[in-house]
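# nightly structure sweep
# worker-07 picked up a monomer target from the shared queue
# config: single-sequence mode, recycle default, output format = structure tokens
# input follows
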Amino acid sequence: MNIPVSIVIPLLLTAAFFIAVARFTVYRPHYKLPQVIQFVRKLDVVELSDLFNADEEWALRNVSDPREFRKIQRERIRLAFEYLQRLGHNADVIQSWAVDLYDEIGNKKAKDFTLQRPVDL
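# output follows
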């Protein structure tokens, strides 16, 4: 009995899709805070504030010629975009961890929240 490839491949892809969805929704791993910290990306707050500082941009505009300023400005925009991507990634990681923690807390009863047994972060 030979099953056509045109039927087997879509069935395998559908099964793989449902397994992946089940893995990342129902059977999510539970992370602790030190593990979450490993997933976030580093941000330099001083450099980020300098990128959005109007005085810094004004000083660059006055010190450099227009062609040089455009080149510097393109680099600043690229860096700002990278920082915004990192912020979004970090927010997503922390939100996922918080949802998981909220689900874990939601399953506990009020008597479980005592000083003898604090919530495990």
